[in-house]
Amino acid sequence: MRNIGKQFNDAIINCLEHIADGQEEAIAKAAEIIADTIENGGIVQSFGSGHSYGNALEISGRAGGFIQTKIINEPSRGNYEMIEGVGTIFMNHLDLQVQDCLIIISNSGRNPLGIEMAMAAKKMGVKLIVVTAYDVASHSTSRHSSGKMLHEFADVILDNKSIFGDACIEVAGLPVKVGGTSLYTGSMLLDRATMDAIDILLERGVTPPLFMSANVDGGPQFNQKYLDMYKDRLRRY
Question: pTM of the prediction?
Answer without folding.
Answer: 0.95
